[in-house]
Amino acid sequence: MNDVRAAARAWFAANWRPDIPLGEWWELLAWSGWGFPAWDTAWFGKGLPASAAAAVEEERRRAGAAGPPTTLGAKVIAPLLLEFGTDEQKRRYLLPTIAGRAVWCELFSEPGAGSDLASLAARAVRHGRGVRGASASEASASPPEDEWVVNGQKVWSSGATVARWGLLAARTDPDVPKRRGITCFVLDMEQPGVDARPLRTMTGEERFGEVFLTDARISHGDVVGDVGDGWTVVRATLALERGIIGGISENLPPPVDVPAGTFAAHEQAGRQRGATMMGTGARSLVSALLERFGGADDPVLRQEIARLYVLLEASRAASRRRVDPSVAKLVTSEVTRTLRDLAMRIAGLHGTLDGPDAPLAGVVARMFLTSPSISLMTGTDEILRTVVGERVLGLPREPAVDEGVPWRELRVGTQRR
Ligand SMILES: Cc1cc2nc3c(=O)[nH]c(=O)nc-3n(C[C@H](O)[C@H](O)[C@H](O)COP(=O)(O)OP(=O)(O)OC[C@H]3O[C@@H](n4cnc5c(N)ncnc54)[C@H](O)[C@@H]3O)c2cc1C
User: Fold this and answer.
1) Alpha-carbon distance 311 to 84, whole Å?
2) Is pTM, for the whole model, over 0.85?
3) For the chain, what is the radius of gyration of the CA atoms?
4) Which residues make beta-bridge pairs with 151?
5) SS3 category, 155
6) Ligand 1: residue whose CA is nearest its atom 44
7) From the CA of 203, how far away is ligand 1's center (Å)?
8) Crossing angle between the packed helical segments 260-273 and 22-32, to the nearest 10 degrees
């Protein structure tokens, strides 16, 4: 472990340059293996166990160097490609993703498939050479290569309007039970068959998109995992996300042109005083609010602060002990609600103000409006409680009326028999 620490320290001392553009730093970090040290040595990593990778992270922080991107692509899609992707996919997608050049989105949810995601209806049909099952009209319109043609609608896709690629879950076999006929793909978002429209939330921001797919094309080489086994990939994606939800940055194009040092300073500031709706920086936010508005002597507030503290410790313990990701996500939801209510209580009516001249630049108001979304994303609290009940506590499974029934025969979304 000491050798790893020393090697990381030496590398950061020799290579960290705050004046180079962030994108250049990320590229250097990617090729060095020190950005994602737990990854395989063949793919931008050092093959280190988690404890040694954590030591590398400490050394990076000690050096004041910027960390690798914390985008959905780098934190979720890249690890998935490492697990399920082909070598060609890794060659093609990993570097642009971890160098911050490409944003990804996740195209899972549909208007008729959210909590019951396995009932999704976006349809992918395989065309091309030697493919059986394509109808005469499909075959005549089929493209020359071995491709999939996708039609359907996705919704709530974070970052869809700026994403270069999407991880898409689509139905490839409607004649088997719902979880068995799904396949995952990498979808090129910059093609004529993909129409990503922004959705505005109550904060006034447009961070989501709804995506309409009309004869969108996907090369067969972009199937992720096995055909018909997309549910395994979807579940792995959600598990990854649930475990690290507070550590994923907003799904926006990363600022690759800013000096790496400016970004590193931002990161540091975020750690010290940045408060997000997920409890990152909760302690510093509460301190700042008490300093600004008083209330540290109020016994009811003190009790609530103690409750938040206990939850934050539980959250820390959950991430250290690698508990089931559903438990970790539920704790995150609870921390979010507790922090929101506490912040509002301390700030009073001031907490409803937003804008640069509002107290703490409006962080409390924004947190208040964003907080409900945390209990929904990557699976609602209700669904996660069911998952915990069944998979962690071993309670009897919820009764299911669609077990063994081919998807085509289900009444899901707008589907009619
Ligand atoms: C901030 C945010 C980011 C998101 N990002 C993405 C993304 O990038 N890509 C993507 O594909 N999706 C994304 N989503 C969508 C998210 O995964 C869904 O909103 C979520 O799965 C819930 O689905 P739904 O909205 O259709 O609600 P529904 O499934 O319609 O649920 C409505 C209500 O009914 C409850 N309910 C439903 N079924 C049950 C049950 N069996 N037992 C008990 N209660 C039940 C739910 O808990 C919920 O309260 C995002 C959502 C949010 C809020």
Assistant:
1) 34
2) yes
3) 23
4) 123
5) strand
6) 382
7) 19
8) 90
